[in-house]
Amino acid sequence: MTVKPKYWVLSLFVLLGGIDPSNATSTPVDPKVIHIVNRLSFGPRPGDMQRVESMGVERYIQEQLSPNSISEPPSLTSQISQLETLRLNPVELLAYGKAPSPEQKPSPEQIKVADRHARQVLNEAIQARLLRATSSSRQLQEVMADFWFNHFNVDAGKGHNGLWVGAYEQEAIRPYVLGRFRDLLGATAHHPAMLYYLDNFRNSAASRPDARGKIQGLNENYARELMELHTLGVDAGYTQQDVIALARILSGWGLSRPEQETKNGSGFYFNPKHHDFSDKVFLGHTIKGSGEAEGEQALDILARSPATARHISYKLAEYFVSDRPPSALINQLAQRYLATDGNIREVLNTLFHSREFWDTKNFNAKFKTPYQYAISVVRATNINVKHVRPISIIDFLKQLAMPLYRCQTPNGYKNTEDAWLNPDAITRRLSFAIAIATANLPPSGSPTKVDAKKMTPTQQRPPIVTVDARQLSNTLGNSFSATTQNAIASSSPQIRTALILGSPEFMRR
Questions:
Q1: What is the rounded CA–CA span in Å between residue 269 and residue 292?
Q2: Do 177 and 342 meet the contact criterion of CB atoms below 8 Å apart?
Q3: How far is CA 380 from CA 38, 52, 145, 374, in A?
Q4: How many Å apart are CA 21 and CA 309, to the nearest integer?
Q5: Of 87, 135, 94, residue with least CA distance to 387
Q6: Residue 382: in which H helix or E strand, if any?
Q7: Could you give the count of Cα atoms lying within 13 Å of 36 in the half-sphere of its Cβ?
Q8: 266-317 per-position pLDDT tens digit
Q9: Which end of the chain is more exposed for a tag (fewer CB within 10 A), N or C?
């Protein structure tokens, strides 16, 4: 349902109330700069627009495509280093956050400790994601971490994945977001979070259950989603026989037990007792029965398929260009994908230099998802994400049906306007904008709040910042419609920040 921009702004204006006519204008930033910052990042922080104007769009693109060349803020590095469970591998995480099995008769205290540890693991994974998204200078890397996690979605709400989801992002997604798609595909295929989420740990050629009664024969879940969502796409022409063949190829790919763990705590184990060693025909290719290597061969076939090239190119174009990307652009990106053996960085470089990407009709045309909106608010206002509660990003995302790490379906969250633009969602966004604008929260980089009762006379309270509307407008490039400018100019100074954060222009990227 479309909400007209005019009434969108006026509804926020009426909600806030107050008129104190005043007008102040600033020089708009080059629309190309605004476009590139909004698409390659989660939105500008103070000074970002001016920095990109100074360095030039091309240099900014190349810098973001090479994230290791960009220094991270020491405050971010320090905060991430304090999240201790991020250093644990999947095997260690399972031991840390899982109570003893019922057969071992765990005590109430053991169960309580395990629950507390499990909450800590998931909370620290969420903290790390939000800290990086809001504070990292390597913004394209963060955008792509979100993009690829969503593409290879796993749900933290399913069993052990509450413990593994952070490690999954750390180990299977982040190292490969700008690398070769085949490496990314392989990393997700081997990770216990994916094997557990899509049930491949239950996939066995054996007809009898194993000693624990969990393996009950061939399971096609992962094989089907691997083709339909992760690689070829739903209309690629594969058959049910291909799904069965791939399930047989991946039989035995599962989770390690303590006595089976051999790969540095990875949690992956290939069990030959559960594998179908017969020859298979998959997508027209004959794959000889050879054990674990069959799966690697199948992943090679999938990663190098023209259908995969087109499917990945479509999703990238949809994310970075428009909800209905032009077929000419998709073809161009697919050709680049195939020519570079799935080099994601090269595909993105082609996309960022394409005619379609720079077509002005696509400027500010992508409606932000709830996640993108929340992160862009924190970045634009320079608020310390650690102090956003009780104006909680987590609660906001739950209200907007986009809880972090909690998408239950394997296709992930949509990034198109029709999924997120509706009156109730706009009302909740406006409430969030008002709350942020009037919260008087510490700025980014300020220390954690100290209990006033424990402060010595020489200690000072952490600095408090009220987001200045003029500064916020400069941060965003001073690019607003006449309707929005008039609403801001004729409002009282106290509510201008909320008007900007609730404006139609800020809802888009």
A1: 10
A2: no
A3: 11, 15, 20, 10
A4: 54
A5: 135
A6: none
A7: 28
A8: 999 999 999 999 999 999 999 999 999 999 999 999 999 999 999 999 999 9
A9: N
441: its two tokens: 């929260």
Task: Name 334's Cβ contacts closer than 8 Å, sequence gap at least 6.
Answer: 306, 309, 310, 313
| Cβ neighbour number for residue 341 with a 10 Å cutoff | 12
Exposure string of 391-421, with b = 16+ CB inside 10 Å and e = fewer, is bebbebbebbebbbbbbeebebbebebebbb
Three-state secondary structure along 278-325?
CCEEECCEEECCCCHHHHHHHHHHHHCCHHHHHHHHHHHHHHHCCCCC
Percentage of the chain with pLDDT > 70? 86
> CA angle at residue 378 from 377 to 381, to 5 degrees?
80
The DSSP letter of residue 270 is E
> Is there a contact between 322 and 418 (Cβ–Cβ < 8 Å)?
no
| DSSP letter, residue 268 | E
Q: Does residue 465 sit in helix, strand or coil?
A: coil
Give the pair of three-digit tokens for residue 231: 């690689």
Tokens (6 digits) for 241: 């026989």
Residue 204: count of CB within 10 angstroms of its CB: 25
* Domain boundaries along the sequence of the chain: 5-65+367-501, 71-197, 306-362
| Positive/negative CA dihedral, 297, 298, 303, 309 | positive
Nearest to 20 by CA among 490, 484, 485, 496: 490
The tokens 């320090």 sit on which residue? 78
